[in-house]
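Service request form, structural biology core

Requester: graduate student, group of Dr. S.
Request type: structure prediction, single chain
Budget code: on file
Notes: please return the result as structure tokens.

Sequence provided:
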Amino acid sequence: MEKTPKKLMMLVNPAAGRAITDPLLGSAVGAFCEAGYCPTVYYTTAPGTAAELAETYSPDYERLVVLGGDGTLSDVIAGLMNLSEAARPRVGYIPMGTANDVANTLGLPMRQPQKAVEKILTGTPLEYDVGEMLGVGFFTYIAAFGAFTEVSYKTDQELKRTLGHLAYVIAGITSLGSIKAYPARVEYDGGSVEGRFIYGAVSNAVSVGGMVKMDPSLVDLSDGKMEILLVREPKSAADLNSIVTGILSQNYSNSPCLTILQSQRVRFTFEEPVPWTRDGEDGGAHGQLELRCHPRGVQIFC
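Core staff response, request fulfilled:
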């Protein structure tokens, strides 16, 4: 008696990285079929549709495979987080985007679908923490404000291939006159800090913007905490140099302008509404914003 094929949902963003072709998709589908799965393919048609598709259809499947970039994966996970924990299928990710921060963090092969399929079929599922901007939505790897976040996240896809998010920040802070500092109070588990910050990020990733690496010894993707990176306004050329050196060397203690914290919850209070980004998309402007971590929100094969 033949075994009943296992149900697998494939959610495809055909625009991701401009690299998803019919033969590529066909080879991925074929590999899953050979492994005993019966894939059903869904295509995204506009921003946000990945979340809707994941929330509506994924509970009927054993696994959900995302073929696209970090933005597509972020949408999918946002959709899954609207389901009960028991209804969320395990997630496989075939990264075909530009920066691929999540792929770097998970150690997945980029733009190599056959190798990514092998990881999904043979890898161990990682319980992955998911962030939330309360009142705004979920995020997979980063929520940020300040220096050049709006500019970098509205850059076209071709430029995103060569300039990562924090690459803009590092290049941009060399022109101090164009950087705005935001007076803020930051409250986290166990304490608070105040200051004038040109940049702040709440993340769960070792790669941010496809260029800058967080210290892997600080980042545990399943510990129920997010990393909070704050960059204070530099007052001198020495401060500026310490910021650049600290970020590139992953040694944040060497700069008086860099603060890194870990917390499950964090609240930012500003004197005026400040624009935020959420996984590369507009996160709105907020005078006060609370963010939290949902421990082990989803399981991702890696």
